[in-house]
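Reviewers asked in the last cycle whether our approach scales beyond single polypeptides. To address this, we selected a multi-component target totalling 272 residues and predicted its structure end to end. The input consisted of the following lines:
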Amino acid sequence: MANQPIGFLDSGVGGLTVVKEALRQLPHEDIVFIGDQARLPYGPRPASQVQEFTWQMVQFLLQKDIKMLVIACNTATAAALEVIKPRLTIPVVGVILPGTRAAIKATRNNQIGIISTEGTDKSQAYVKALKARNARLNVISMAAPKFVPLVESNEFNTPLAKKVVAETLAPFKQTEIDTLILGCTHYPLLRPLIRAYLGDKVQLIDSGAETVSEVSVLLDYFNLANLNTERPATAEFYTTAAPEMFDLIGSQWLGMDDLHAQQVHLNKESHE
Ligand code: DGL
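The resulting structure, written as structure tokens, was:
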């Protein structure tokens, strides 16, 4: 079983921020990634629909014989993790608790900010998880709905993105937060702009990157780590939309010149 791939899913290219970290921290693990670009953004969708779409991607990944599932999407983690976990016999990891733990470790003044999609913000998943671990934390959660379209259109490094980041994060300047959770896996692509706007005093927590450290622990705990260091690891990418934009952003972000995603069609009938 250790030779089987790890499955990652997201609504789009955001999950690649988690994959990037997996390639770095777990270079001997095979990876299968699927992004549902045809139906993103997930953020504004009702939780029931996010659950349905996520479940379709899970079915796709199970056909690839994955040994572990990483829900590399905060919106899908908030809406579907607890529904999916009991249905599968393999370990299932979401991105919210790893981000929560990292923020609690990082803060010095107990003032934590969160930016996420409307769905994650509405679920209050981060706020509840943080407060359950430390009731004294002051938590300020905000949705940043304009960030995901900037990333998916490959405009995350433009003057427009700089303006949107400044407008969206302005309310945090009136607060004392010393830690900000990037509660959407798309947001690390905007990290340089977020860093430049907020300055060095605010620590940025990349929930996806933190998740890979926990994946590593779980692989060892369940004896699932691929210890065959001789064989080159493989990475397969799938998207539900035309793959051109995925290939462009993915190859830049992951530094893989030969990245070519395959387009797949998900629907209820074929994957249930
Ligand atoms: N990347 C996803 C997340 O972490 C969601 C982006 C979206 O489709 O709205 O929440």
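The chain has two domains: 6-94+209-271, 96-207. We regard this as preliminary and will revisit it once experimental data from Aim 1 are available.
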